[in-house]
Amino acid sequence: MTDKAFDVVVVGELNADLILSGDVTPEFGQIEKLIAGADLALGSSSAIFACGAARLGLQVAFIGKTGEDEFGRVVLRELGARGVDTSGVVVDPHIQTGLSVILSRGSDRAILTYPGSIPALRYAEINPALVARARHLHLGSYFLLDALRPDIPALFDVAHSFGLSVSLDTNYDPAERWNSGLTDSLTHADVFLPNETELRAITRQASNEAALNSLADLVPTVAVKLGTRGAIGQQGVRIARADALPVAVVDTTGAGDSFDAGLVYGYLAGWELARALRFACVCGSLSTRAAGGTAAQATLKEALQAM
To answer: 48: part of which helix (H) or strand (E)?
Structure first.
């Protein structure tokens, strides 16, 4: 039992997703192509994580930033509809909400992102009283949070001072520099949640095993997403692996964020790493059953039955 109002407070980017599906490879030269589908959905890795955690029954609050525009209203409405508290979201009338256009081909996709409000969240805009009301802090899209990034270690320290554990998913670095002070932030995190590409780029190691070993003394728990090959994780000298759940894939958007939600659920429940990894893989796999990152996210009952 806990007297905290929230299980997880999420700090991260907010944007809408315009998901185009079918034959989405563009042809320039003013050539018009017809595609199979178009969906406007809640975007951002951090928001998809928040919805996945809420879908599993966790109490979730969000801290981020939007513009005072239609995309911002879509984002706030969709978060609220999924039970996520948005009292920590700053609405700034002087900027536009970010937008990602996703060209989806089932198991693969390309993403075009207009940052807008995404890099604008500042440390001074985060209410420490809201952080203090949670058990765990999750931060996503580290490389996109330009204004906040220098203060992320301080934010993690504040969270620890309130008794929270901390998880970090950097997501992809569009600049492909793969550092920007990341090591300092990692030393202040309890759980690190990269995918395979990010893991190797950040550690500059050629294999997953070598990369995990290089992080063993830096972060207590590392869980790495391997796509259709499942996941691998390490705690100290212990390594665990889990397989993905075979499903008919419609769209992989946000699968890694649903994986994160499952892993954090297991972490907060005190599960051993192997079980938490398996649960996370199930959550990630089930989320690919529909277009968008949130439409097919698993309930706790569904995920447990699939395990």
So the answer is: helix 45-55
Please give the full DSSP string across 77-105, using - where no structure is assigned.
HHHHHTT-EEEEEEEETTSPPEEEEEEEE
Rounded to whole angstroms, how far apart are CA atoms 236 and 213?
9
Judged by DSSP in three states, 151 sits in helix
Identity of residue 288: T
**Lowest mean per-residue pLDDT among 28-42, 45-59, 95-109, 178-192:** 95-109
pLDDT in tens, 172-210: 998 999 988 899 999 999 999 999 999 999 999 999 999
Per-residue tokens: 128: 């420490």
User: Residue 203: what pLDDT?
Assistant: 95
191-192: strand order across its sheet: 85-92, 60-67, 6-11, 134-140, 165-169, 191-192, 221-225, 231-235, 238-242
| Domains of the chain (ranges, CATH numbers) | 6-14+44-97+119-306 (3.40.1190.20)
Q: Name the amino acid, one letter, at 79.
A: L
Tell me if residue 136 falls in helix, strand or coil: strand
Q: How far apart are CA 171 and CA 285, in angstroms?
A: 18
Q: Which helix (H) or strand (E) is 61 found in, with range?
A: strand 60-67
pLDDT digits (tens, 9 = 90+) for 227-245: 999 999 999 989 999 999 9
Q: Report how far residue 192's alpha carbon sits from residue 285's, in angstroms, rounded to the nearest whole number.
A: 20
End-to-end Cα distance, the chain: 25
Which residue type, as a one-letter code, is found at position 58? L
Nearest to 46 by CA among 122, 138, 127: 138
